[in-house]
Amino acid sequence: MPIPKDFMKPARLSAKERAFLQLQEWIIDGTLQPLEKLNDAELATALGVSRTPVREALQLLNAQGFVEMHPGVATQVTAVNNADVEKILPVLAALQALAAEEVSQKGVTASFIQQLRAKNAEFALAIESQNFYLALKLDDELHTLIIQEAENEYIANPVSNFQAHVRRLFFHNSIILTAQSVVEHEKLIASLEAQDAETAHAITKQNWVRATEEYASRTK
Amino acid sequence: MPIPKDFMKPARLSAKERAFLQLQEWIIDGTLQPLEKLNDAELATALGVSRTPVREALQLLNAQGFVEMHPGVATQVTAVNNADVEKILPVLAALQALAAEEVSQKGVTASFIQQLRAKNAEFALAIESQNFYLALKLDDELHTLIIQEAENEYIANPVSNFQAHVRRLFFHNSIILTAQSVVEHEKLIASLEAQDAETAHAITKQNWVRATEEYASRTK
DNA sequence: TTCTTATATATTGCATACATTATAAACTAC
DNA sequence: GTAGTTTATAATGTATGCAATATATAAGAA
């Protein structure tokens, strides 16, 4: 019986990876608050490992913009500026729109379209039941499906980083999702199906731009 | 006499930062060839430091896509796929175009426009004298000026990473620059001056898309 | 011979001790 | 009392030793 390789991999995570994932989660969900001091020795004992893997994880989080390092002074969680919604979402929109455009040009299979529709149906249910965190997660997954299809890691990597930042903004009450997204998703899927790259691009961008504007109007 | 803060900073770089910058440079300019094995102990002695800062630098390079790590086996320089030009440039174009759009909407000062024109003049000279590496560097600097003006680190960070990858592709003879860019830059500057966001966006995108197409046509 | 199993080796991963740096407190000189 | 200097402390940065892992080699049994 052939065992899929991918199944074996997650079995053993290195201490560094565990530390990274745990700290990132804590920063995103607010367990570790913005500007909170991160003493590596303290974190090491808390995570049951030595300082080395903790420091390595902190440096990666620093590269991702979740942690600020001041050599010889302190390491701390970065601040959360709610106004950053207006900085991130346009970039996320541009990248996701580019992916949609590329996928549309390449052409798609029927089963891929079916996957998207299924995910959008789940998304609609989550919105309807006002489970907004689940909705955000499903929205991410829907766009990630498209990005994986684009097979462009230069899009996929920054997008996955931005999604993490968006999740943190969500936990700090900076983002809202509405039923309007369900309609937009369906339009997006239809344009992919019709290989209409221009519309696919436009709709994807509109999807996040609208969210940005909703944020802006709420804060006025 | 007030000494500018920024002047003091580069004076002392940590061993990790020195290792990172040196290794990145070596990977970009081909001193360290694609797929070359990177033994951290070896690199440590070569750089006159211990394994720790070297390993930290390698992990950052891994996050940036310059290094591949296979735990317990080997660490090596990532491969260079010349076809990646067609993956990176559209993304770089999309991000730089977004920056140009934002700057255009915000409005610009006369001195900023003057800076851009000066840089483009240098760029034109470099192209004319067929100093293509200098030209690439000046092109980067021109677009970086615009990106700094946009004040959006979610654009600036991935772009600076992509520029590093593009420089590596240049050293592996995957990219060419032509005098056409000089004309496009001038059009871009004019559209920024006129606060024409749409044109600024379109020109910036065209600037790299054309380079991509030139690459594609050369490889056929 | 061929497949299996030990074993040796090389590499990365982790833990810990030490060095360096930056800040704040205490102390001295004026 | 205040300014400047010294000293103490706490944090990060670096070096080194050891552990764990993966691969290749060699040995042994079928």
From TrEMBL, chains A, B:
Domain HTH gntR-type, chain residue ranges per copy: 13-80
SMART domains from the UniProt entry: HTH_GNTR
Domain of life: Bacteria
Xref: InterPro entries: GntR_C, TF_FadR/GntR_C, Tscrpt_reg_HTH_GntR, WH-like_DNA-bd_sf, WH_DNA-bd_sf
Pfam families per record: FCD (PF07729), GntR (PF00392)
Signal peptide: none
A GO MF term: DNA-binding transcription factor activity
Keywords: DNA-binding, Transcription, Transcription regulation
Protein name, entry field: GntR family transcriptional regulator
Species the sequence originates in: Candidatus Kurthia intestinigallinarum
